[in-house]
Design a protein that fits this description.
This protein is mainly alpha-helical. Helix content is 56%, strand content 2%. It is built from 23 helices and 4 strands. It has a two-stranded antiparallel ribbon with strand order 1-2. Strands 3-4 form a two-stranded antiparallel sheet. Helix 1 packs antiparallel against helix 2. The longest helix is centred in the N-terminal third of the chain and has 33 residues. It starts with a helix and ends with a helix.
């Protein structure tokens, strides 16, 4: 019966037409590259434009056309019918030409690829074979040179990095490590040279990459990738926290940046003009801190329902409770702050909480252990300790405690930017929610295996740890009573942003939590002495 064969005949005919048309498009694109047309003869470019527009319109007609077109792009090319096919597939061949095409043709090609990204085979091949290698090679130039918005790096990341079934490719290609390394490289280009051998790099607020926020490509892509909980968990705990060490190096570049000297010069009664020079640095700090909740969500996704499954006894009631904030979770009796599913009348979970937390953890991946969590805390503490030694003096590195040097907020430099402090605060909140029992005490969370003398210097470490958050809050008190009214808008605006309801979860609340931890470590008497 011819009617029974008609659908199959039409499918084969469509595939044949697609195949021939794509080969012709490939030929034309090579002509554009090898023999650029003159201004008065754009026949080749016009043909390419019409073919791409027709394919784009056809791909919007339904899944059947999209799937056929995607299969023809990615089908292995095993016959020498066309000498212009230089890769294993037509997609590989055309992507080799992509950097040399005109902006208009590149834009059309990208518009054609967007609907095809819904086809898993096309998306995975495009991501692994083309996008990730291109990203590694060109992302720094894209940022430093402020590349055209029609670039591939501007068009595709959100469509590729946010899809769950691409995470295995991102892991295989070590995409997170690439993003962290590139972020560190870009921010280091913005640093002023150290004033002494072995000195610390500090970001220069006047660098164009910072003032124009060209770095946002990397920070946004990090947020896209870390939105997958398994990627965030691996980033923190895999390889003994090696990747997290690299991230702490990124935070170290931003730690203490844009230090302010609020005292007016001698003989000057008020600031001559207001300045918004603080805004780019605040935005950079906000971009880096916006990644922190994604780390925490990744850790939570790998927490079992009960603490006992974590290598330890059932916890006693915690002596120390973390405050509410962006990282807080609802508390239920017996689970030390961990969220557990509610039961319906049938005794099973209901709604989105129908599956117990333990079963939501992928069975092929490891669970979070206390040892892994402690290594993450040690990594953060080590980076923060190195910064404190550089900022407050070598006395912190000595075996015998010495008093932290005095500081006058109204006469010396201070900074609002303390990402290492705040990262530590967020991680401590999560660790404390697991409970403290047996040999694990609150003080032991601050003792690193790599630095056995740290426990003996705990009072000094706690005093140094609270020093910079305390300076900020001393400044806030001075601003509230009007001591800085003649210094213009800059200091006041930074304080308003720091305490804003939009940002306080990532700034003020975490600084307060650091000071609360230090109060526990020091005791009330020493804490009050340090504060006064």
């Amino acid at each position: 019966d011819p009617c029974e064969q008609l659908p199959r005949f039409m499918e084969r005919s469509s595939r044949l037409i697609f195949r021939q048309l794509l080969h012709f498009l490939n030929y034309l694109l090579h002509k554009v590259q090898e023999d650029p047309p003159e201004d008065d003869d754009e026949d080749v470019v016009v043909k390419c434009t019409h073919i791409l527009a027709w394919l784009q319109a056809l791909s919007g007609r339904g899944d059947a056309f999209r799937c056929m077109l995607a299969e023809e792009w990615t089908a292995p090319f095993d016959r020498p019918a066309c000498g212009f096919v230089r890769g294993p597939t037509l997609l590989d061949t055309i992507m080799q030409l992509q950097p040399t095409l005109t902006d208009k043709l590149s834009e059309q090609l990208h518009s054609l690829f967007f609907p095809l990204l819904f086809v898993p085979l096309f998306r995975k091949r495009f991501l692994k074979r083309h996008f990730i290698p291109y990203y590694r090679e060109h992302v720094e130039d894209h940022i430093v040179n402020s590349a055209n918005d029609k670039e591939m790096l501007s068009d595709f990341p959100v469509q590729l990095f946010t899809v769950a079934n691409c995470t295995e490719i991102l892991k295989e290609e070590h995409m997170l490590q690439t993003l962290v390394d590139k972020t560190y490289s870009i921010l280091k280009k913005c640093c002023a040279e150290p004033t002494s051998p072995g000195g610390r790099y500090v970001i220069d607020p006047e660098e164009e990459i910072i003032t124009q926020r060209w770095y946002f490509r990397l920070t946004m892509d990090l947020q896209y990738v870390l939105a997958h909980s398994d990627m965030a968990f691996d980033f923190l705990c895999e390889d003994n926290g090696g990747r997290f060490r690299d991230w702490c190096q990124v935070l170290s570049l931003a730690q203490g940046m844009d230090d302010n000297y609020t005292r007016l010069p001698e003989g000057v009664e008020h600031a001559e003009y207001d300045t918004d020079a603080w805004i780019p640095m605040f935005m950079l700090d906000l971009e880096l801190m916006s990644i922190l909740p994604l780390f925490i969500d990744g850790v939570r996704s790998y927490l079992p329902v009960g603490y006992g499954a974590l290598t330890g006894p059932t916890p006693a009631t915690p002596r120390f409770s973390a405050p509410a904030g962006p990282f807080a979770t609802p508390k239920t009796p017996g689970h030390a702050g961990l969220m557990t599913p509610k039961a319906n009348a049938a005794g099973t979970g209901s709604s989105m909480l129908a599956t117990p937390a333990a079963s939501r953890v992928p069975s092929t991946a490891g669970r979070l252990s206390l040892a892994s969590f402690q290594r993450v805390l040690d990594t953060n503490l080590t980076a923060l300790h190195a910064w404190l030694v550089d900022n407050l003096g070598p006395g912190l590195a000595a075996a015998n405690p010495v008093a932290v040097s005095s500081f006058c907020v109204s006469k010396e430099r201070f900074t609002f930017h303390l990402p290492l402090h705040r990262c530590l605060a967020a991680l401590l909140q999560e660790r404390i929610k697991l409970g403290l029992a047996g040999d694990v005490t609150f003080e032991s969370l601050f003792s690193a295996a790599a630095d056995p003398t740290r426990a003996a210097r705990m009072p000094l470490l706690a005093g140094a740890l609270m020093e910079h958050p305390l300076r900020i809050h001393a400044l806030l008190a001075q601003i509230r009573v009007g001591m800085w009214n003649r210094n213009g808008r800059e200091v006041w605006a930074q304080a308003q942003s720091y305490e804003s309801v939009h940002f306080r979860d990532l700034f003020r609340d975490l600084d307060v939590f650091v000071m609360q931890c230090c109060c526990v470590l020091l005791g009330p008497l020493l804490f009050l002495r340090a504060s006064l």
